[in-house]
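ingest -> validate -> predict -> emit
validate: passed (alphabet ok, no gaps, 337 aa)
predict: started
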Amino acid sequence: MKIRALVASLLLLFWASLSLNAQTLDDTRASGVLKCGINTGLVGFAYPDEAGNWKGFDVDYCRAVAAAVLGDPDAVEYTPLTGKQRFTALAAGQVDVLSRNTTWTFSRDTDLKQTFAGINYYDGQGFMVHASSGVMSAYELSGAAVCIQTGTTTELNLADFFRANDMDYDPVPIETNAEAKQQFFAEACDVYTSDRSGLAATRASHEDPDSLMVLPEIISKEPLGPLVRHGDDQWADIARWVLNALITAEEKGLTMDNVMSMGDSNDPEVRRLLGTEGELASFIGLDSSWAANAIAAVGNYGEIFERHIGVNTAIGLERGHNALWTDGGLIYSPPFR
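emit:
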């Protein structure tokens, strides 16, 4: 009897999991809100403004999905999550999309049962020190106290780097970027390691950015992007193709200001993207205006990048690898056909 009860319980959990993972679009429409997991606070990527409204590169992806699915970019419930919390929250259904500078890895894709929608930022792990330290290279960091966010790939990469180079370090575990800033700015640790984009954002938030220096070494590949749960292919398709729509929009010259007037374009792919030709929208269960709504809400990929983290912002990031493939970068969308 105990075995039967155990089997019954396992079957209930199995079917509950299938139910959770197979109706995200319907549930989102029924609730009228997109549940999106974001960073607890990282300038340029996800941060609250003075009025408490969330802004940033990753936040705009959430807004684009909400515009595509619900027709309203403001219909988003944001849940700030630490590195340790994010995967559990997604798996449990607390959020339905995670847009929080998360690295696509083998184990996260397979063992944790997460589906990555694509790569929206190509990054790499680096180190930031106080300029007064005189340190000019990561290979000079033996014996340093290093602030490191727990539950991240940076934690594992750090251990690999120091072990491979026969160096020692003293880890100072932190859970949020706010805690990292507090510890590092107060010189409770000698070094802060994270994705270089995050280091640039942290440096920009300091009252004296010139007192901080990002070292030249990049010790890892960090392909970052939004993700959803395994098990709901339709929702994964929506998450993936919203990102692709923003990328294709930049390639095709579609902007926040002109997209609604481009439906009669001579470019067949633009017409397919904007729903004035073909039936692509029906394949993912959305209205024909889904892509136009997303682009009108937040702009194309390039507009989002430049608005929040580009060279004219305090963060000042060059496009680099995150330029379009036509400009020598790695940002590339499969075709809309």
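The first strand starts at residue 34 and ends at 39.
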